[in-house]
Amino acid sequence: MRYRNVGKSGLKISEIALGSWMTDLKGTAQEEVAKDIVRLAFDNGVNFFDCADAYSGGAAERFLGETLKAYPRRELVISSKVYFPTGTGPNDRGLSRKHIFESIDRTLENLRTDYVDLYYCHRFDEHTDLTETLRAMSDLVASGKVLYYGVSEEWGGARLEEAQRIIDRYNLYPITVVQPQYNMVDRYIEHEIMGVCAKRGIGITVFSPLAQGLLTGKYRKGQPLPAGSRATWQSDHQINDLLTDENLDKVERLVKVADELGTNLAILAMAWILQRPEISCVIAGASKPSQLANNLKASGFEIPADAMAEIEDILGFKRFERHVG
Fold first, then answer.
1. How far apart are CA 127 and CA 134, in angstroms?
2. Residues in domain NADP-dependent oxidoreductase (predicted)?
3. Could you tell me the CA-to-CA distances from 166 to 6, 160, 283 in Å, in that order?
């Protein structure tokens, strides 16, 4: 396993991180499988375990806290997030100082730890003054309950720059990390966010590297959906919306590139992300140990320049630029 700094901070995290977005597994056979996955991750050098208070109503945090207590805390990098409702009250959601302070205490209790290494604003809160949110997050760092803080989805480049102006004005602890979606078929962060992060020294920990399973190669054009796959049961149909002829044609060509390199599409897709120096790590979930074992092979997998050029030709991505005149 290779490690990278989170932006310009001194914190080092594994290139492959384990995500903990799960249903409540307590008392089920899948709970033991999930514990095996965490054990396999740790034994293979994964030190970053990502979670959120909203995942399964806190059950994901409690599972992770119970499982990780077997490992030395100093060897772990644990994250969580705040924003989504944790109750029915009017203050049980968002990024107010009150909700942030109450949420971190519940998160620490769930995770069985005195601090989290990374704490993310899970969304942008249109109803709370940004200065209030940034002061609260900075104060958590000052208190020692959080070591570094960051933001997740829906914080574009303009919001990051606005946040930086507030941080500079009040001499607050800075934003250290951003966690956006990023993969071969969803590259929106290259339009603006990636450049802002590079300029400001903000790390990028990306999720959904396999595009809901599209980039595993199990969904193929003209073939039925694999039995039990996400596309057969996911209620919000995210993967189904990705199964377009255009995307499936790209998958066919990408599979051939992977074959030529002696690997599979999942490894290629994750390794492709890690070719970018702005990226701190790739966060991937796993429902069985074999999936994780495969994902781990992406760390250190070098893609030759000619293969990278072929991949770019297949993807056909164009960074947005507006020219006048």
1. 14
2. 15-314
3. 22, 10, 29
Quote the CA–CA distance of 151 and 157 in Å, as a whole number: 12
Q: pLDDT, tens digit, for every residue of 210-262? A: 999 999 988 887 777 777 676 666 656 678 888 898 999 999 999 999 999 99
Neighbour-count burial of 291, counting CB atoms closer than 10 A to its CB (0-12 exposed, 13-18 middle, 19+ buried): middle
Listed by start position, the domains of the chain span 3-210+264-303
Beta strands in 33-174 (DSSP E): 48-50, 77-82, 116-121, 146-151
Which CATH class name applies to 3-210+264-303?
Answer: alpha beta
Q: Report the alpha-carbon angle 201-177-104, nearest 5.
A: 145
Q: How far is CA 33 from CA 37, 126, 231, 272, in A?
A: 6, 39, 22, 28
| Residues noted as catalytic | 55
Tell me how far CA of residue 316 lies from CA of 4, 233, 273, 309, in angstroms: 28, 30, 16, 11
CA distance 31 to 52: 18
